[in-house]
Design goal:
Strand order of the largest sheet: 1-2
Shape: globular
Order of helices and strands: HHHHHEHHHHE
Structural class: mainly alpha
């Protein structure tokens, strides 16, 4: 795809303003009214595109999205948000995203020689620490939570990344992080040190999980259970 010629000075000013607007939108998104934060982020994107003449023609999809959200406020469901009904129970994208990221983390730890259940327990403990309760109230024991992480990984690994969101996220993250982890292995870093670095809050994978938690789950007062059907392993 050909690059779009953009004035660098204009772009620098626009990017700075865009970053400020996104920071405000992100703060709202993490608060009690997630919707306002999302609309703020879309509005910031619109403003950014308008402020760069070479990009202004690409604003259409964002305008359509905002119009659709306002229509819903008026009690109208626009065609943009209508989909054909699927057979069976739908699974929220947030759950699929969490399953894919968790499955990727488990695969990485397995590849640096952690036993599967031990690695899954470490990931479940990390998710709990950032506010995600795995399963429902009857499935919070560490062993049951670890089984759920294993189930997520196995399901994503066997899935079709073209049509399965959890498989797509699993493989996209795996492709991104495998070289980083292998570089640490090649440099002689101890296994536990790699695991700590991989699962701490500064790592990109964990940052994505924290953002997901803050937006999709963390705005609720209680700790939220990931309880959507096939994304929960049987506790028995």
């Amino acid at each position: 795809m050909a690059s779009i010629p953009v004035d660098r000075d204009d772009l620098a000013v626009a990017l700075s303003r865009f970053a400020e607007r996104l920071k405000v939108a992100d703060a709202l998104y993490r608060g009690p009214n997630q919707r306002i934060g999302i609309i703020g982020a879309v509005a910031a994107t619109q403003e950014f595109l308008r402020s760069v003449p070479e990009l202004a023609d690409y604003i259409g999809p964002f305008v359509k999205l905002v119009h659709g959200l306002h229509a819903i406020d008026d009690g109208i469901v626009p065609s943009l948000f209508r989909v054909d009904r699927l057979v069976g129970r739908p699974y929220p994208l947030e759950d699929k995203t969490l399953a894919g990221m968790s499955g990727c983390a488990l695969q990485i730890l397995i590849e640096i020689k952690y036993p599967k259940m031990e690695a899954a327990a470490l990931i479940a403990r990390k998710l709990t620490a950032i506010g995600v309760s795995i399963g429902n109230k009857g499935n919070t024991a560490s062993n049951a939570a670890a089984k759920t992480i294993c189930f997520w990984r196995d399901r994503a690994k066997k899935g079709d990344r073209i049509i399965d969101d959890d498989a797509r996220i699993y493989y996209d993250f795996l492709v991104a992080f495998r070289p980083q982890i292998q570089a640490l292995v090649d440099a002689g870093r101890p296994r536990d040190a790699i695991r700590t670095e991989f699962l701490n809050g500064d790592h990109t994978l964990t940052k994505n999980a924290i953002t997901l938690t803050a937006g999709a789950m963390g705005t609720r007062a209680e700790r939220v259970a990931v309880r959507s059907g096939s994304f929960r392993a049987d506790a028995s």
